[in-house]
Each structure stands twice: as C-alpha cells, then as structure tokens.
UniProtKB/TrEMBL annotation:
<dbReference type="InterPro" id="IPR042197">
    <property type="entry name" value="Apaf_helical"/>
</dbReference>
<dbReference type="InterPro" id="IPR032675">
    <property type="entry name" value="LRR_dom_sf"/>
</dbReference>
<dbReference type="Pfam" id="PF23559">
    <property type="entry name" value="WHD_DRP"/>
</dbReference>
<dbReference type="InterPro" id="IPR027417">
    <property type="entry name" value="P-loop_NTPase"/>
</dbReference>
<dbReference type="GO" id="GO:0002758">
    <property type="term" value="P:innate immune response-activating signaling pathway"/>
</dbReference>
<dbReference type="InterPro" id="IPR036388">
    <property type="entry name" value="WH-like_DNA-bd_sf"/>
</dbReference>
<feature type="domain" description="Disease resistance protein winged helix">
    <location>
        <begin position="327"/>
        <end position="397"/>
    </location>
</feature>
<dbReference type="Pfam" id="PF00931">
    <property type="entry name" value="NB-ARC"/>
</dbReference>
<dbReference type="InterPro" id="IPR055414">
    <property type="entry name" value="LRR_R13L4/SHOC2-like"/>
</dbReference>
<keyword id="KW-0677">Repeat</keyword>
<feature type="domain" description="Disease resistance R13L4/SHOC-2-like LRR">
    <location>
        <begin position="458"/>
        <end position="791"/>
    </location>
</feature>
<dbReference type="InterPro" id="IPR058922">
    <property type="entry name" value="WHD_DRP"/>
</dbReference>
<feature type="region of interest" description="Disordered">
    <location>
        <begin position="16"/>
        <end position="38"/>
    </location>
</feature>
<feature type="domain" description="NB-ARC">
    <location>
        <begin position="44"/>
        <end position="235"/>
    </location>
</feature>
<keyword id="KW-0611">Plant defense</keyword>
<dbReference type="Pfam" id="PF23598">
    <property type="entry name" value="LRR_14"/>
</dbReference>
<dbReference type="InterPro" id="IPR002182">
    <property type="entry name" value="NB-ARC"/>
</dbReference>
Amino acid sequence: MRRSPLLPAPQMLTSTASAAAAPNQHALSRANEQPEHSRVVGIEDQVDTLAGRLSPAVEGERYLKVFSVVGFGGVGKTTLAMEVCRRLEPEFPCQAFVSVSQAFEPSRDLKPLLRRVLEQIVKTKAENEKGIKEEGSLGDIDGLDADLLARKLAHKVKDMRYLIVLDDVWTVRTWESIQSVLPENNCNSRIIVTTRMETVAKVCSPASIVKGHFIHYMEPLKLEDSKKLFLSRAFGSVDASYPTEFNDVMDNILRKCGGLPLAIVSIASVLAGYKSSGSIDKWETICKSIVSQMESNPTLEGIRQIVTVSFNHLPHELKGCMMYLSIFPEDYEISKDRLLCRWITEGLVLEKQGLTQMEVAESYLDELLSRNMIKANRLDEHKRDQSYQVHDLLLEIMVSKSLEANFVSLKGGRYDGMSYDRIRRLSIHDSADVGAYSTSKVKVTVDHRGTEEVNLQHVRSLSMFQLQGHKLLDQLGDFSLLRVLDLEGCEGVTNKHVRYACQLHLLRFLSMKNTNISVVPPQIGNLEHLQTLDVRTTLLDHLPETVTKLERLERLKFSKRGLDIKWVLPRGLSKIKALRDVGLVRLGNDSQVAREVGELELLQTLDLHIGHETVDEEVLRQLALSLSKRYSLRCLSLVDISSAGKMLNFLHDLPAPPRLLRSLGISGGISRLPSWVGSLTYLVDFAMMGTYLVGDELLGVLCELPNLKTLRASWKSYREDELVARTNHTFPVLRDLWFGEGVLPKVLRFEEGCMAKLETLELRIRSHELETSIVGIEHLTNLKMITLKGDKDNPALYHRLSQLKDERDRRPKSNQFQVAVKYYL
C-alpha cells in the first residue's frame, strides 16, 4: 500500500484485528521472527563458484561479461542468481533483477522491462527542505519509448559497475532484443541470464568471443544436501530432531525428488504439518503418490507431478485461493492488499468466529507462504506494500486446473481462446496486437442479439492486464452481473469508463489505481454493494461527496499522482459504517468531520494529512478525542503539511492512545514524542520525519517496546550534535534501524548492551557530513548488514565506508557484517 509521500511508510503488517480484541499472537510472532539472513541450503558450493567468477577481480578487465545459468524449471536457477546478487552487493551497488516472460514480445515488453531495470538501479533522493520524498529521477519517463529509456539507462550507469539479472529467458530472439538496449560501459559490469535452454545460454555467453563469459549448468542436490533442505522446510532447521521412524520414507522421498529443490520444498512443506511419530502413515501415502522416476531421470514432468501432489494436499479453501492466482500473468507482482481484498470479494474466504474476514484471508496467505506455494518479494527501502509472486511452473499447473474447471477464463498472451460458453472470471492478458481483442474476435455477445460461442453476460469478475485497454471496456455497462472490476495500471482507461463502471450496481471491488482518470462522477454513490474503491496514483483532485452514500465501503484508497494531496474528507463520513481503511486524505478546518472520524467504529488504517490551511484548535481537539475512541486502529500515519509545522502537538492531549497500534508514522514538528507512544505494546513499526527531537526523546521513549521491529528516522527527526543509543536502550526485538538524509548528527554512538538484536543499519550520508563519527559499532554484536547511501562523488561516504570495513575486519569471520553502498544517480 502506498503511504504518505511525506513519510517513509510504516510497513503495513497485520492491520485487521477486530475492534474487540488485541492483534492475534500468530501475527505478532511472525512479525518478530528472526529470519535467516538470505542463506540458502544445498547450493552453497554453486553460489561460491558463480560469485567467484563474477567478482571483478582481474586487473585491467573492464568489459561487460555475460554469465548464463542453465537448468530446467524447479532446479534452483532463480535462487542461485538471487543469492549471488546478495553476496556481491558490496561490489555491485547498482543491481536489478527482472523476470522475462515466456511470451516476451519486444515491441510490447521491452519498454516495461527497461523501466523495471531503471526503477531498481536509480535510487530515490529526498531534497525538498520540507522533507518531501520525491519519486526519484524517473518522473519523466512515462512517455519515453524503449530507445529513449535505453539512453537514459546508459546515462545513469555510464561510470557505474552494474549487475543485471534476466531471469528465465526463453528464446535467442528475446535475448538479442534485450541485449541491444543494455549499456556496455567498460566498468566491469555483469549480466546473469537464467534459462532453461542451452541454445540460449550458448548465444548469451559465447566463450569463443570474449574471454570470461561463462555458462553454469545447474546440478541436482546431493543426497546429503537434499536432506538438509528437506529438514529445514519440514522441521524448521537442518539440525532438527525428528522421529527415527521417518528415516526410511524420507530417504525414499528424497530419491524420488532427484535432488531438485522445488520438488523437495513442495513435498517437505506438505509434510511439515505431520511431524509427530504417529504420522508415518501420512508420509508413506504421500511417498506412494510420487510416481515419477526422477531418481534416474529427473524431468520437468516429474517436478510437475510432485508439485501437483503438493497442491492436491492443500485444504479445500486454499485450493481456491491458489487457483485464483491464475488470473495474474506470468511473473506478475501481486500486492498484498489487492490479493486479499479480491479473495474476500470473490467469496473465497470463509467466516470464522472472532476473526475478521481480512484476518482469515491473511491466515490463508501465511499458510500458502509456509507451504512455499507462493513467494514474498523483498520489501524495498521505502517499505511499500509487500508483494508476492508464483513460481512459473506452479502457475502453469494452476492455469491448467483453473481452465479445466472453468474457474478462470484467460484471453491474450499465450491464451488464444475460451472453452466454455459461460464464464465467471475473465482475465485479459497483454498482446502485441492491441486490436486483436475486439468483441468479434473474442466471440462474445454484448448487445443481447445473438447466441455465439461465449456470452460475457455471466461474467462476475473482469481483470485487465492489457496496458492499452481493450474494446470490451467500451461495453462495461453491459456487464450487469459484474462484482469485481480490476483495471489497475491500464493506460487505456478514461473518464468515460468510470461512468460505465458507475452503472454496475452489483460491484463490490473497483480498482482504477495507476490510471489516467481525472473525474469520478456523483453516480459512484449508486454502487450500494461496493466494498473496495482504489483510485490511488491517478489524476483525481477529489472524490464526489456522494461517496458517503457507500455504506458498505470498507476500503477507500485515494491519492493523486505526485505529491499534491487535495481531497478533503467530507461531512457525512460517519455514514460509511463499514469503513476500515482510508487514505491518503486531508482533514480540513471542520470540527464535525474530525468528530465523525471517531464514529467509524471499525476503522483500522488511517493515513491523514493535516493543515495546508488554517486549522482551529477545536478541530484538533475533536481529532484527539476521535483517535482516543478508535480502539480498533492498527495503522496510523499523521502528516503536518501546514507552513508553521506545529499541528501535531495535539497528540499530547489524547485522553487515551489507540493502544493496539502496530504501525505509527509521525511527520511534522512536535515538541516531543508523546509519552503514550512508549506504552504501545503491540507497535511493530515506527517512522518519523521533521520532528526536531532532542536528547533521549528519539530513542528513550521507544526503547522498551516489546514488539518494535523497525525504526526509521528521516529528514530532521533529530537536531542535536550527538545521538546516543544508551546501554538501557535495549530495544528487545529491534531488527532494522534507518537514518535518512538530514538526520545524522556529528556523533552517532552505540553503547554496550543497546539494540542487541539489531541486524540491519542504513545510513544516508550527505557530502558535508565528513566529520560525522559512528562510535561503538562493535557493540552491535548481531549486526549483519550496513548500507550506506549517498552521491557517487561524496567524500564523506567513502570515508565512512573505509571506517566500517576496518571495523568489520576486526571481528571474527563468523560474526562479520556486510557493508553495501548504494548511490544516487
């Protein structure tokens, strides 16, 4: 979920506990787990080999090298490439990792691929004196074609060593089209290509042309490594104890898996639910269901069989949620809030006593993650909403099952037609030929005058992944039974399509996020069943006041593209009794609206901007009362956008804090942190900006919070020359500490005993901060990664880098931390 552009967003973890109960302990335990530090099981030797070859160690060699990793699906190519990137981050600060679709078409896909590369390589930079976070130097690329994007990329990395991974390249044509736009900058840069095709690898890495190109052939895991991977997934650790009666059947399973990681992980994830000694019959049953002969002949079909076994052993409710993922294209990054809301809207989430549907949906997601059916992408530096992907082999299986059962109908891309007369869920994928999807081509009847092969009158769900849109959009008004309309990112959506959508009176989910719409008509208020309205990053200035008629609306997500937040919360807000999640919005000078916020009994997430105009004391007093009454709040972000920057002092006057907060962000001047912040037992994430704190006010209030995992201080959060993390600043579970630009004092000191669990430290260093001293790093005994960010020509950054490397080298090798540098471009 995109948060306030003024504030580095708190990570929105579980924000859906019911108003009558504390956040469920399962969610908190997951939040406080100490994850393994990007370590892999079973392929360490292969990581060492490839990382050693990629490392720019040969003096005088500056040309670009291409390394190919070959193996069929599920053998671990992507995992290997990701681990190599992590290992080499200090040597290659400019990195990008992009997936390449099997249906890659240069005329359609080259531009978005280049954009993804640029977005990962170019780092954002906060420069505005008010601390407003810019979107980076990419704001002008929307209208650029592939050639201009390639030039921009070449300019950005002209003096930088880069490492780019192209994951899952299928054809020589695809490689050649991508290669033609990647820069050769003579800086010892590297490209890694993963592919199932040896012919592709030999073209990507022709050893006879340039010395140093290399092809790595993935090897199946040895039996010993297979067992380590199995134990780590099934029992939680490679050294875990388990009933000895499992040994024989475990060895049999591992032989059938043929040393293939995806197969091992899939079966181990199923058996993780059967760890007791009385479960041997279940193990034997699953072993017998693996009919492939992969021990002697590992094949892609064998992996499919094993992954299918894993799917077949899912609980019934999870099978529907997994099959639903076939709606999304290959390699698509699915945001968490979008996925959960759609599951709920589609009726795939059961009701459970004492839990909200969102909590149940999150438990489904957690279960699929624990079974390795989906993977979580790494959160970026600004903690935007978590996203997920499905392994392409597993997606193939889900698509096959969904099409066979008429659970989902797909059109476009690799999918040429539909097999059933009646369809319920229609997903339009992208195509090189935008005009190929006319209604006549799809063989549909939308004017009620014919009985052709497919009738879209029965469609309940329409998802559009074709960027330029589809002629079906012009007939939206005819989809009278539509419940879900998801047009996120569709550039072809216009204001007329919004008007058509407002005629769909059964709609429950409407997303026009990241489109170019500029007007929502008053008729939006007629959608009496609407539960989710997502119009973030559009051209909208406001929403009509008729949104207050949407009494069943649970999630209202608004933001204008850029930083100008204009929509002021209207009177009548309290009529939306079901509202749980609202943002990004502004509170005007209206005490009635401030009071109505407190009447939203189910409100759990609020992202509110205050100011931009005069706000009376009475308005702030009413807001304080409202926040105190909202026991249900889980995530709160408050941003003072007034010129005076004094609005947030009202927080000291809260009669009682919302004690179940898990995420809190404060941006703006405040005399000190409210004392009640130190009593937020469930707080996991805290972010601040422009607070101008002094002394122990920054760390002293927060240091005893039992669940605080992430702390971020950005632009002018602190204003004294020395900041000390004292011995009594224990921070029991703090794992991530982040200091943005304009925060670092002249001395940052860590005393012995502070922050014992800290794993990652990120520092943004400006060129004039040469005298900044970091003292006591040796006391952070659990530290694993320090990331420095700044301009390339920044002497302060290089000075700090040298100091930290010296400190790292003084540690025992088993306890050394990594130091990575990321440059603004």
